Structure formats: C-alpha cells, structure tokens
Amino acid sequence: MSISSISAADMPGSGGVGARREIRVPSLPPVVRGYPLAVVSHGLVFIGGLRGERPDGRRAFGDIPETFRAKGFSGYALADHLEARFAEDAWCAHENLHNAVLAAGGDPDQVLRLHIWMKDKRVFPVYERVRMAWQSVPAASSCLGVAVVAGRFGGLCGLEAIAVVPGENPLLPGRGQVVRPDNPDFPSAAFYAQATRCGYLVFLAGHIPIATDRPGFPLIAGYVDVPEEGRALQTGRSHTDSRQGAIAAQTWYVYDRIRSGLAAQGLALADIRHVAVMLQDIRDFGTFHCIHQQFFPHEGPALMVAGFGEVGHRGTLIEIEPTALDPAAGVAAETVPWPFPAPFAGPAAACIGPHIFFAGMLGLDPDGRIVRCADDLPTGRARRIAADLARLEHRPGFAAQCWAAWQRLSDACGALGLGPECLVKTTIYLHDPEDIFVYEEVREHFLASSGPLPAVDVVAVPAPGPVADALVQIEAIGARP
Question: Which residues pair with 184 in a beta bridge?
C-alpha cells in the first residue's frame, strides 16, 4: 500500500518518557491553523483532526488501489457517484492517519482509539471497507454522524485518534490485548475492536444497543427487551413508558454489556474513569442520567455528553465510550471535584497516571449554571471581551459560554497545580463551524498561541452539550510534566 513520504524534517525529536513533543508535518496541516498535528506525551500520541483533503489535493477514485475499487462499486460513474466521492475522502483521511502516526515515531498498527465523523452515515459500508484496507486489526472506535465535517480541508469524513509509541514509556509499552470484532461472546456491530489495552489503560469502543449475540442483531427498542433489572423507571403507563422507555432500556442494556465486557477482562464498572456519551436526542439526557447513576451510585467517572446527527444505526439513541484503568497495574488515580455543586454525576476530571481526562467543559458560571450572555460572566474584563466578540458570533451567548468553559477548564487544571499548558488534546463541539474564530479569540486569553498548544479537532453537531442551552463544549485531555 503506497503512502505519502515523511521527510526527516517531519520526524519528532528525541525526548524522555515525560517529554512533550509537538508533531507538525507541512504536508498534513491541522484543522485549525497554528495547532500541532499531534502531541506525544508519556508515550501516547494524541492526534488532532484529520480530513480527506490536503494542500496537495486528495486522492482521486482512480488513485485508490484497484483491489479496493473492484468490490462494492458498479463501475458506472453516475451510479457510483456518492460512494466514490466518499471513498476518496475516507481513503485519504486514513492515509493521513497512517502518516501522522509515522511522523510521531509510532507504528500505524498501534492506534488505540479512533473517532470517525461522517456527514452522511448512509455510506458507512464504504467506510468500513476503507478501514479494513488500512487496519488489519482495528482500533476501538466510535462513528458518529455530524452536521458538517468541520475545519480546514473538511469534506465527508473526519478522524481523530490516540495511538502509542512502543517502547517510549515502559508503563505503556504498546497495544496489547485487543477484543476483536469477531469476539464469539458478543461480536462487534461492525469492523472495530471492542476494546484495546495499552499497559494500565483500557480504551473501549463506543457501545450501542444492538444485540449482536442474537439472530438478526435486534435493536433494544424498549423495556420489553431488557430483564426486570433494567426496568427501574417503568411505570406501566403507555404514554410515560413510550416517552422514556426506549432511552432507559437502551442505556441500561449498553451499560450492562459494558459491565460484562469488562468482567471478561478482569475489570469492573468501578474501573471506568471517563465516559463519553453520544445522544441522538439531548432531551433524553435526564433519563440517561438516572440510569447512569444506577450503575455508578457513588462518584463515578468524569462525563462528557453531546448530541449528534446520527448515533449508531437502526434506531439506536445512544452510544457510550468508556476509558478504564486496570487497578492491577498499581498506577495512581485521583479525581478533581467541581468547585461548585456538580452539574451532573461525576468529577470535573479523572487522573490516570500522568494523564488527565476532563469532564466535558461547558459554559457554566461559578454557581454551575449555563451562562446566556456577557453580563452573566463574573468579572468586568470577561464581560467586556465577550460583549465585544458577541457581534461576531452566530448564536447569541456563544462567546460568553466559550469564556466560561475555558474558565472551568482552567480551574480544573489549577486544582492539580497545573495551567492550561498541560493540555495535549482538545475537541471542540459547537453548532456553527464558523464560530471557531470566536472560540479562538477566547482561547488566546487562557492559552496563548506562543506557548504549547494541544492537538485539536472541531466537531459541528446539532447539540454541542447535554442541554439545549449549551452552545459549546470542550472535551480535553491533559498530562502532567
């Protein structure tokens, strides 16, 4: 398989286990100008947004190997128009991922987690064939439908990833145990690993409520599809149960499957430190949260929740992606509490060894409420800056929420004795990708471009946060020096 060459100037410099390295490759520009393509920290590679376009152009359909083009396409230009365009975009995005891992000094077979953003999930079968061509053993993955594949050179498909550089950190020596797609106890819904291990870290794929261990792979549609244990919210009244039964049953089923999958690896739900939750309809957040608390009755993991254009397939309403710690490794773990009453179950951040997995940072005021405008910010400087940026925002209150979200993220860093310079990866969820310019103006006040920047991705979705008033959310990973 041919790949673009990586010049010596593109390769990372030397550094110790704790060294932070920014990866910048001229032929692979980041989705937002000025950011590194990836950041290597303690042996892990945090790769920002990758797209199917590049300054030198994307691959044409005819450039893709004939062995790939020979399957799944009719050979007629008009009939293959949509699928061929997507194949070009997805193929180049994976080629860029391949080269990004090489540029970081890693091995493309060492991808641990992959997020896939698709403008139209109808062409998912084409994407699956692309991924199978590039990944003989796939990463743990989540694939979501988004409003726009945002950022520079955006098209129909976007990727972001976490990989490992084998041998750089003795505690994270490389990708270890992989729960493969053909897991006989519970097959994957597509070609992805249900979990990957790297030392003390366990990355789980996004789990959806499809019973792949039953004939026909049925959808979990409601209370009737789960045992009595999963019907805690059932009332026996048609209207009430039809409104919340689907999301309640699906959430319970997914967490129960995750519990079983962890148990097969000698782990428990209590070992989960971070959970990303993708909802089809954010009006389901309240019901989801009730079920979530049943599985995590105490503090639970740090939590990020957003609403997407399409989650899973065939009526699935939720996808849940956990990150866990194997306690047998003896690695230290701690949590960072919210400085105000917690807005939802879970801490502001969870630390796993040197890495910090933050909860989704929303535009909350010091009392934990969503800010609506510049006047809701606590200081005169913040109000003046947000009010000035308000003339550029596409949704009223966006600039103020960006400021408040960065303040909450900075507070969580500060609780660990760190500044925002500790961030190695951020994913920005927003409605309108053009608002990234407002976001960047705010970000400069907390984390200047002259200092170290994280790898970044920008995701345009129908619901950037777990409630309708949330206009922006920052999903972040940090690292201690």
Answer: none
The topology under which CATH files domain 1-174 is: 60s Ribosomal Protein L30; Chain: A; (3.30.1330)
Band (pLDDT 50/70/90 cuts) for residue 229 is very high
Enter the pTM of the model. 0.95
Q: What is the pLDDT of residues 311-339, one digit of tens each?
A: 999 999 999 999 999 999 999 999 999 99
Q: Domain 175-330 belongs to what topology?
A: 60s Ribosomal Protein L30; Chain: A; (3.30.1330)
Instruction: Quote the pLDDT of residue 191.
Output: 95
Nearest-10 Cα torsion for 55, 60, 65, 69: 140
190-195: Cβ within 8 A, 24+ apart: 190/124, 190/128, 190/143, 191/128, 191/131, 191/132, 191/138, 192/114, 192/131, 192/138, 192/139, 192/140, 192/141, 192/143, 193/137, 193/138, 193/139, 193/140, 193/141, 194/140, 194/261, 195/140, 195/261, 195/265
Could you tell me where in the chain the CATH 3.30.1330.40 domains are found? Answer: 1-174, 175-330, 349-481
Q: Which of 382, 408, 236, 222 is nearest to 315 (CA)?
A: 222
Q: Report the topology of domain 349-481.
A: 60s Ribosomal Protein L30; Chain: A; (3.30.1330)
pLDDT tens per residue across span 263-282: 999 999 999 999 999 999 99
> Which pLDDT value is given to residue 14?
37
